[in-house]
Amino acid sequence: MADNPTAAILIIGNEILSGRTQDVNVKFIAERLAALGHKLEEVRVVPDVPARIIRAVNELRAAYDNLFTTGGIGPTHDDITSECVAEAFGVPWQKHQATWDALERHLGAENFNAARQRMAMMPRGAVPIPNAISIAPGFSIGNVHVMAGVPKIMQSMFGTLEQKLGRGTPISMRAVHGLRIKEGSIAAGLGAIQQRFPMLDLGSYPFYRESGGGVAIVAKGTDAAALDAAIAEAELLIVSQGITPVRGEPAI
Amino acid sequence: MADNPTAAILIIGNEILSGRTQDVNVKFIAERLAALGHKLEEVRVVPDVPARIIRAVNELRAAYDNLFTTGGIGPTHDDITSECVAEAFGVPWQKHQATWDALERHLGAENFNAARQRMAMMPRGAVPIPNAISIAPGFSIGNVHVMAGVPKIMQSMFGTLEQKLGRGTPISMRAVHGLRIKEGSIAAGLGAIQQRFPMLDLGSYPFYRESGGGVAIVAKGTDAAALDAAIAEAELLIVSQGITPVRGEPAI
Asked: Is residue A158 located within the same domain as residue A194?
């Protein structure tokens, strides 16, 4: 996976840090990035505070090939992502005429108030990311892709965006699990499999459910033959414990 | 909330970055921290890579009063949080005798293999965080609190830990919502309320559901009288739109 483009997600949202809202955007973006062959390397959540947003945008856009942000692009006082991204890039925050016109036409001039006009402001050079749900777009500037926090809108924006993103070799996962397996009993064997397949990431994840717990072994990587071979070895490791392995993830 | 202790969460887990696992630990810790009066200021998710973990631990423990980590403390090859925290603090990673003895007694000497012995290793000076589910503890060192990634075990560890954490003034939330409210129509009024209550964080969150969407207005802070007054003003703002406000969050 060394050649896959890298990515980070920045979640701008007091509502995640307060515990009000359960984030579901990371899992969605992570799965889609894996399918596109992009490697998600970091996620950060920061509050709606300009200095914090600007610093995180600049650190993450420098460190990774693409940065995806969610949240803070609506019309209210706590929606400050757009001007913060302009500041991070050192460019003016200005009217995006086509977006302005589209919003004014859709809402009617009498409803296109100062708050809503903020949604037509973008960093100079930004390219809108349309979506199927709201007239107000996200935008891309350089390697930074600014999306809504509302999952349905974000998902539509990501769908627009991914057609423009480059492709890496898709990152696949294979899994096998066994009931009553103890991690400590298979750790040495699993470590040995990882050493034989250095091009893969092998993980071991205990699961707990009413009908009985166990361990899932998950292999992740871009080499399909290696994935199949590693999971076959993981199956034998489970068999060596006197347990019947089951392909795939456990149903929870 | 300026006087509240600050906190960060570091999630160590390839399984979150790959999209395999939906994180639920942030919301749990965030809610409990708010009740304890600690202000969660940042969350990061990093992969199971030593340099990345060490750097994130050092940046976050320097920036905030407390750092809570989840994940990477089991017996397998990808469980490297403990030695990384030792490295971050520049102290030896060594046998914690009481934990070693407890694990050996519980498992039996014949099952206490090299992989499981790793769970009895801690940075020098660490204090175990017992839990009700597993014999293997988490640990605290300085202002860093290292917990399991499995939610049930993490939650039990946090329960142990919170008795030792200092208390700040609890951070409360109040909410009111209105159906068919448009954010753009109330943005100016809401911004004015925020200006009148600078000690609070006011947020506005659109919601979508089959029976009809709207907007929730949420106020967060430590000043109960201010919270009540701000939410009363938010109610009037909703009324001014010809909509009947409903106290609390919308049921989804």
From this structure: no
Please report, for the domain that includes residue B177, its CATH number: 3.30.70.260
Q: Do B107 and A184 touch (CB under 8 A)?
A: yes
Phi, psi of A224 (to 5 degrees): -60, -40
Residue corresponding to tokens 């943005």: B187
* pLDDT band at residue B183 under the 50/70/90 scheme: very high
Q: Is B211 contained in some domain?
A: yes
Using CB atoms and an 8 Å cut-off, which of residues 24-83 of chain A contact chain B?
Answer: 24, 26-34, 40-48, 52, 74-78
Total structural domains within chain A: 2
Across the interface, which of A21, A42, A75 has its CB nearest the CB of B184? Answer: A75
Percentage of chain A surpassing pLDDT 70?
99
Interface confidence, given as ipTM, is 0.95
Contacts of A43 in chain B (CB under 8 A): 11, 16-17, 43-45
Furthest CA-CA distance within chain B: 73
Q: Which two tokens stand for residue A225?
A: 């033959």
Residue B73 within a domain: yes
| Structural domain contains residue B167 | no
Domain hosting B12: range is 6-162
| CA-wise closest residue to B167 among B63, B25, B33 | B33
A20 in contact with B at a CB cutoff of 8 Å?
Answer: yes
Q: Does A204 touch chain B (CB under 8 A)?
A: yes
Q: Which residue in A20, A22, A114 is closest to B173 by CB distance?
A: A20
Q: Where are the alpha helices (DSSP H) in chain B?
A: 14-17, 25-36, 50-63, 81-89, 97-107, 114-117, 151-162, 183-196, 224-239
Q: Are residues A59 and A130 in the same domain?
A: yes
User: Is B136 touching A (CB cutoff 8 A)?
Assistant: no
Residue A188, in any domain of the structure? yes
